[in-house]
Amino acid sequence: MRIHIATDHAGLEFSTQLQHHLSDQGHEVIDHGPLAYEPLDDYPSFCIRAAQAVARDQAAGIDALGVVFGGSGNGEQIAANKVRGVRAALVWSIATAELAREHNDANVIAIGARQHTFEEAASFIDRFVETPFSHDERHVRRIAQIGAYEIDGSLEPDPRVTWPTGGESADAFDPEAG
User: Fold this and answer.
1) Tens of pLDDT along 86-134?
2) 86-102 burial, b for 16+ CB within 10 Å, e for fewer?
3) Which one of 21, 32, 76, 116 is the catalytic residue?
4) Residue range 4-46, pLDDT digits in tens
């Protein structure tokens, strides 16, 4: 499997160790930066490039996943989720790593390098990589709804909105428009 990784200064040591760990398991690892420690670097461009590569590879039929690191993993997850086709999950345990893949078909995980030992983080990544998506109908349906919103902004009808008069659909009704 091809695994794209990215970090910032807070996760650089983890990233280096992780590259060796994943390569030793036979994975093709692609590092999206940074190349050297810079305490004032900014994670968004690194993480977005890794997420773009995952989305591009998957669209081309290449088996690929991504891992992004930072101090907490929060910003890195947010950055990765800005890329169309990416479902990035913040992972902090074996269970969240497994569920991210099994239920959400996450293709990128974010981990807080300051929150975990390398051994813990490696175990989360290993579980994430080895866990398949369940393909249960409810999970497929939910992921499709997220994808539809990502593409054209469509949402399922809001059940709290009352039907307007005049035959319009509830989606055409804007309660804030008056």
Assistant:
1) 999 999 999 999 999 999 999 999 999 999 999 999 999 999 999 999 9
2) bbbbbbbeeebbbbbbb
3) 76
4) 999 987 878 888 899 999 999 999 999 998 777 777 778 899 9
CA–CA distance, 151 with 146 (Å, rounded to integer): 9
Dist. CA 99–CA 132, nearest whole Å: 10
120 a catalytic residue = no
Q: Beta strands of 71-143 (E only): which ranges? A: 88-90, 108-112
The single residue of 102, 103, 120, 150 carrying the catalytic annotation is 103
Active site residue 116: no
pTM given for the model: 0.85
Number of CB atoms found within 10 A of residue 173's CB: 16
The structure tokens listed for 169 are 């659909």
